[in-house]
Amino acid sequence: MIPDKNFATLLITSRGVDHLCLFDRSDSDLILKYKWHLNSQGYASTRIEGKQVMMHRLILGVVDQPEIEVDHIHHNKLDNRRAMIRTCSRAENSRNRAKGRGYSNYKGVYRENYLWHSQICCDQKVINLGRYRSEVTAAKAYDRAARDLFGDFCNPNFITHEPLPQQMTIQM
Q1: Pick the CATH number of 100-153 from 1.10.260.40, 3.30.565.10, 1.10.10.10, 3.30.730.10
Q2: 163: DSSP letter
Q3: Measured between alpha carbons, how far is 169 from 42 in angstroms, rounded to an integer?
């Protein structure tokens, strides 16, 4: 463990590769009780009473509550600082997922008939956001909708600290 101001790091070696796991210093007593490894999905994991327990679930106290999911806000599975993880519903967690594989470089964008189409899914419904000549413009349309629909759980294509122009309101 390498202490820093407010967080500590734990070195976990998996298949000959070293990984640094971050957690708050205030959780050190809880974390250092156990031996940690990476599970097959890349999360810090240990065994408690014969059951696999992931570090982020232990820290947030939801080990025995499978209906509650834990979201790694910035998608770093080994950053278990309390400011970087949060409890959420399955729907909220899926809204914050990363871009999948596809032709476009951006989430929510695909190409068809020489135009870039933008769409978003919410409550198991596909919402078409328009067709654009530019892939970037289509991606920005997705970002506006994602921020409007998902708030803090959106995972935009472009990180900005300013509100996007022409905020749109989507009604379901």
Answers
A1: 3.30.730.10
A2: P
A3: 37
